[in-house]
Structures are given as structure tokens and as C-alpha cells.
């Protein structure tokens, strides 16, 4: 049928064109047989249309049967979903990873693969909340099981923030329900049925009613071709020192005269804290910056903001490195409008 219909259709199309041409010639020459030829061309056209219609139906039915067969072929005889890391590599230059896993999860299943920040870390990291460590958690990515394999190429969001040497974790999960991986849902049944059958896997309810997620515990991977934590911290400190050395030193009078002229300049000011206000994530400081014989002049004040908190208090002497943002106007407790040069601090020490 697959070969006959296309051949018959092509033959009908060819016959239709030839007969139609002959009929037109006969009409022009006013031959008696022109009507019979024209009728034959119409019959050829009808055969062509029928063949095309049947071929379309066969193609649609074939796809439907193929999909049904694929779903019917899922036959799970094991009691634990699992996977094994076959290949893993880290590209330092691209800040990307390539992972290949083998798994008993059925082909065609949509899965999420996650790559976690370090679980075991080299000596030198004392605080798991270290900003360097916090940047190492990559979001999970979606992919599909093909021929018993899960392959993923994953690019870090920032090529400049390298993954440091150490041990990392990879894990899998996949949702099961009437809208996600429905062929698995037909095999596994409800969440309660899946829990009783796959006791070694973590199974939890999702936000979508009636659907659930099967989580497969993480395995550990080692990165050894990148940079060590100590070396990374050393590079960061060197970069900070270079940035500090580039800071411009201005007199307060220059800045106050025209703060917008100096907007976006990276500057350095040393002074005494007149007032400091903090919340959980940010700090505002009024800093007296002109040194006199008796101390710092409280008339020469710069308004400082900082994205973070510090250990400093009023009357402490500090050095601020940051970017000029023009001026800032606020209302004093007495109801007066006060305008000060404004600096967005990057470093306070």
C-alpha cells in the first residue's frame, strides 16, 4: 500500500495533464473526440484526488498507531528508578559542563537534571555562605531520555565566575501525571500506588493536582581542571586592590560644586561617620570627609549608600570606595531640604 498509492497518484497526475492538453487541442480544432478526452482527464483527476486522500488517512493512522505502540511498550518490572554517570567533563574556558547518564527511566520521559554546588569542599573554605560558594549553584535544566541515555550540555550564566575545584552533586527528577509523562502515569498509577511500588525513590506531590514528582538522589562528581578556592580568593583580592588603586581622590569642594560633572567616576573618600542607618540588606551613611586640626568638618558631608551591612558605628573613621551618582536630596527632621553629593559605595573599610 505504501508504494502502490504514490505510484498510482503520480500516474493519474501524468494522465490528467496529457489528456487535458489533448482535449484543449481537440476543442481548438473542433474534433469530435474532444468530449471523450476531456471526460477521461476528469476521471484521472478524480483518481488522483482519491489517492491523495487515502494516502493522508494512511499516514495519519500510521502515526497514531506508532504513538500507541510506543506507549504500550512501557513495561516496568523493576522497583527502583536509577541512573549512572557515564561521562562528565568541565570546560573551564566556556564555564560549561557536559554530562551523560545511563538510566532505567523509560525512553521519551521528560526529566529535570540538576547540578548542585559543592558538597565536599577543599580546605580553605570555612563558610558555606561564602559569596564564591553561593554562586556555584546552577539551576536545573529539562531534557529527555533517549535510548536509555540522558545527555546535557549546560552553560554557566557567567563565564567569569568559574566553578572551582571540588566535589559537586548531580540529581534527577521527573513529573508524572495526566499532562506530563502521561504514558508513565498509565503504567505507575496514582502517587500512593507509585510510593508503594518504588519505596527507594523519593516521591512527592506537585503543585498540579493529581500529579507527582519522582526524585532520584544525587551522585557526586569531581572537578579538578579548574581553579582552587584559595587561588580564586587570591585573584579576587588582587582585583579589589587594583580597583582601589584606580580610585580618584577629589576635594569635597570640587565634588560639592558640581556632583553631576563627576557622575560615574570611581572615587575614594576617608572620613568620620556622622550617622549610619542599616536594615537587613543595605546601609546609608552620612560621612564627614574634610579633615581639620580638630577633627572632621561636619559641614562637608557626603551621602553614602551600600548594598550590604558593616560592623561600623557612628564616630568610626572609615574609607569608602565607590561611584559618584550625582546628588541626593532629603528632608531633615526640622523639615529642611538638604542636598548632598551622593556616592554608591562598593568597598567600605
Automatic annotation (TrEMBL):
The chain crosses the membrane at residues 6-25, 37-58. Keywords: Membrane, Transmembrane, Transmembrane helix. It comes from the Bacteria. This is Uncharacterized protein. It comes from Niallia nealsonii.
